[in-house]
Amino acid sequence: MLSTFLAQSCKKDKHTIPVITTTDVTEISYTSATSGGDLTDEGGTTVITRGVCWDTTSGPTIANSMTSDSCGSGSIVSHLTQLNPNTLYYIRAYATNIVGTGYGNQVSFITNQIAVPVLTTTAITSITQTSSVSGGIITTENGGSITARGVCWNTAPDPTISDSKTSDGSDIGIYSSTLIGLTQNTTYYVRAYAINSVGTGYGNSISFNTQNYPIIFNPNLTYGTVTDIDGNVYKTIIIGRQVWMAENLKTTKYNDGTTLSWIKDAYAWSNLKAPVYCWYNNDEANYKNTYGALYNWYTIHSRNLCPSGWHVPTDVEWRTLQNYLGGVGVAGDRSKEISTTHWISPNAGATNERGFTALPCGSRHENGTFSGFWSQGGWWSSTETFIDGPIGVRNYFGWGLMVYWNISGILNGKFSKYLGLSVRCLRDEEEEVPALIPTLITIKASSVTLNTERSGGNIQSDGGALISAYGVCWSTSVNPTIADNKTTVESGAAGIYAPGIYTSILNGLAEYTTYFVRAYASNSIGTGYGNEISFTTQNNPAIFNQDLTYRTVTDIESNVYKTITIGTQTWMAENLKTTKYRNGDQIITTSPAERTITDESDPKYQWAYGGDENYAAIYGRLYTWFAITDPRNVCPTGWHVSTDAEWATMTTYLGGESTVSDKIKETGTAHWYTPNTGATNETGFTALPGGQRYNWGTFSDVENESYWWSSTERSLTSAWSWFTYSYDKNIMIRYSGYKKMAYSVRCVKD
User: Fold this and answer.
1) With the CA atoms of 363, 369, 375 and 376 taken in that order, what torsion angle do they form, in degrees rounded to the nearest 10?
2) Domain 118-209, CATH class in plain words
3) Whether the Cβ atoms of residue 710 and residue 644 lie closer than 8 Å to each other
4) Does the pTM of the predicted model rise above 0.70?
5) How far apart are CA 59 and CA 106, in angstroms?
6) What confidence tens digit (pLDDT) does each residue in 411-423 have?
């Protein structure tokens, strides 16, 4: 029994290293993988630790990278991390007990290679004339962290980040991008992009067309609608007794449902007598909705192309429209869409006053080429005409008309029937419109003088009857009528339509008087009046000394001033009235005129007294000291703002402060308060009481006191000024004025 016990004891104490096998590698990525092992024999003692070890060379041990997953028996799962992409690794499972470490069989694997991100481009939405919305969906980073993402676009296929692009963060998943700065009516190609350490991945390329700018109809008119066989809806407008489509036809069928052929090929279009149509440049997406289709004459002649109850107008019907718009010489401008949204700049005369809304849709030539887009619009009539050629040959044409960007009239012509032009439809039944009095707007008064003024009107509607006379009427009482004073332009027996905008000169006005003005227009129903405006004629002109010889000087705004020599000095004999510095920069004013400038540090302003420009013409303007000492100079070239010393020189020359006032003041009471006794203006200086403006916005003392700045500073907040004390005192005072006050200015010749 003892020998048996000893034998068993010796067998139990004989331990070995563990036995383990390595499992296959799974879940391989760029920087990680999964493996493990199956522990089949612990070696007769407890396993202390186990896991996997790996290296880039064969035969890895626990001296290399390793996991430590657990002790005990059975299988283990180990996660390898912090691996390098695209790298060959060798791996072995291991188990350690008190005897040592046992290793499993060696397996190898290669980590994934990092690649550019994988993504798709999302659909284009929210398309306008200049913007749209797209984005992307990043499905995988492909091993490299995203550093930038967005969309890129161009007018050529397959845009890259070298083209226009957005930058929309650095996450994976779905993102949205807004494309801005696009051009209207243009095809763009878009791709989503994402950048990682390897490079840039792109999504699929998609394209879209920006919208055309919408047609600008006349907002002051009421439009109807009509629908064609294709379901296209058009605005319609009543012009006189005619009812016109206000948009170009875009149907692809006759109104009986017969389909027209779209001919794209230039050669096929050439000399084709069959009914056909096309879109400008064969681009339906960009041109159809705004500009309509182009048709040859055979299309509009074969059968009715227009909606039921409508027809292609005859040449006579087109000319009726032109006459109603004032004749061929002006009908182009009066029918064209305003602005340069669709027409080439400047399109200056376009008014679209009747709502026809002509667009520059271009044309297709006999040889199948296109031209004239943005610069001309052309329309067919249904009328055929001919020109007799040699040897009895008669050549047939279709009547049509053209409107151009730089011509105010309309060109009626005989065009080849193979030409592709636009079509406007006319309703079969004329409109029974009860006539009304005209409607119009009065134009703001301008060029106001002592006895004249310029105004006028803008006729919005003739009321459905031809204008017989138009002009303006005025009175010193409100609501003037043609029974008061008026200007008159007779339209004549033919009843030619008056211009939309006209100008009238009002003569024989009394000076310094307020008048009320209204534009008017008369037709067979009666007289319509515009809104009422008022203005005040200018005051009496300054009274200069007729016994003296004056010269003149002109400022940057072409204001002409009388000048006079007093002793050794040459002065302006009028107060400065410029609103610009010598270099042309504006001297700004406040709005309203009474706004305070107290809190401003160096306010540079000018005002007409009380904000009333009628005062500026006589009394000049009032300026802050900061404005008149600006280095840009308020005086004309060769002149400067008078200094304090120069004021003192003139005052001394004229006998001192106690006697100078009467010698420089304008005589009479046209501008000074009565009695102004003693004023002689013997020097010709012609001082006028322009008043002053306080820094908090109050104006005072016009017709009572004259204040003039000198350019000489007295302190940080004040400067020297000179003024005549009041209308009844013969005194001139040197005064310390607050720099933010506004006084008159007299310039002295250099």
Assistant:
1) -20
2) mainly beta
3) yes
4) no
5) 7
6) 999 999 999 999 9
